[in-house]
Amino acid sequence: ASHSPASPAPVPPNVPQSIIMAALAGCRAVRLTAPARVNSLKRSASVRQSTVRMAVPRSRGALSVAAAAKNYKITLLPGDGIGPEIMAVAKDILVEVGSQRDIAFDFTECLVGGAAIDATGVPLPPETLATCQASDAVLLAAIGGYKWDTLPAEQRPEQGLLGLRAGLGVFANLRPANILPQLIDASSLKRDVVEGTDIMVVRELIGGIYFGKPKGFGTDEAGNRTGFNTMVYSVPEIERIARVGFETAKKRSNRLCSVEKSNVLEVSQLWKEIVTKVHQEEYPEVELSHMYVDNAAMQIIRAPTQFDTIVTGNIFGDILSDAASMLTGSIGMLPSAAVGTDGPGLYEPVHGSAPDIAGTDKANPLAQVLSAAMMLRYQFGEEEAAAQIEKAVNDALDEGYRTGDIMSDGCTQVGCNKMGEILMEKIKA
């Protein structure tokens, strides 16, 4: 997540050898493990029968040694702004859930974004990317801040996020927007409009106008300075994101809406053609509809419950998913996942780095915690562990605890740390 929509830019430029050497100290490993049971519904993490840890049993003070049947290697990227605060909460929750459910974690914390720029001169140090690629999953907090906004576009923190997505090959971004009953009155729209909203936006993540070439600055025939970017998609790129959209729809209500701008853009005409072809040849049982992006933006606000699963390109998905997120009352409540065909997925809250409240204990850690739950479910198939975390969040909200961004009359306002303590109490109960 970044403090503002990602700048249209490709992966980071070539990094000088001196910077590479400086980055080698950018990651540090922490092993926090517990005995683990094998319960993977998708591709699992590495299975290490010989991993051993020292644990303090709850019933006795003596140390014991236990073998971990399975160990998940997680790269943590706290990033910038409120990132370190909310990541600390999510990490503690993961450790506690793991200790209860025999799940072992190896955490490695790395630099990315503005923090990496300050330490190494680049937003995505090579060591960070290599560590992420070698892990089972990546949990990211937030990237960006006003401090780095004056840097050239190719050197800004958001480049680290774009480079990370491309480096991991995570081409499909899953961004849910569902209304929690406890927060329905926090939405900026009327209750009768948003009640029952449950949307999943499947956004293509590493193609389109943010990555297309040519791009840059130039001069037109009249001598005026110009800026230009290229929105381009290939047939394979459209096919693979369409399949993710259809597969996601099959697991929900079997309805998929493809969003594009085929009345104006050739790239959207190809998009619509290929999505239709994939539907006819591979997923005829799924109900497919098409909608222009401007109409979709209006309809999400006018009647959001008409949507279930949306599949769309990078820039359209960037805009629509942020719009959909505000239906829920706060962008601070929503997790997201970015996945590819194989390898580690990238899990992060939808919100940004909120540099204005960093270090003030005002951050809402719930989206980060729910991103950790999403990681457990989608990456590792740990459904029960994910559900336990989600229940803790719901229980805290049921009891009226709120951070400032979701505060309403009759509730109790708490800070980031206190919300973490409340969640921990629910997990341990």
Describe what you observe in this structure.
With 429 residues, the chain is an alpha/beta fold. The protein contains 13 helices and 17 strands. The protein has an 11-stranded mixed sheet, with helices on both faces. Strands 2-3 form a two-stranded antiparallel sheet. Mean pLDDT is 86; it is low at 2-25 and 33-67.
Overall average residue pLDDT: 86
Task: Please give the radius of gyration in angstroms.
Answer: 22 Å
Shape: globular
Q: What is the chain-wise order of helices and strands?
A: HEEEEHEHHEHEHEEEHEHEHEHEEHHEEH
Number of helices in the DSSP assignment: 13
For the biggest β-sheet, the strand order reads: 1-5-4-6-15-14-7-8-13-11-12
Structural class label:
alpha/beta
Please estimate the helix content. 25-40%
Ranges with pLDDT <50 over ≥5 residues?
Answer: 2-25, 33-67
Largest β-sheet summary: 11 strands, mixed
Report the strand count: 17
N-C termini distance: 31 Å
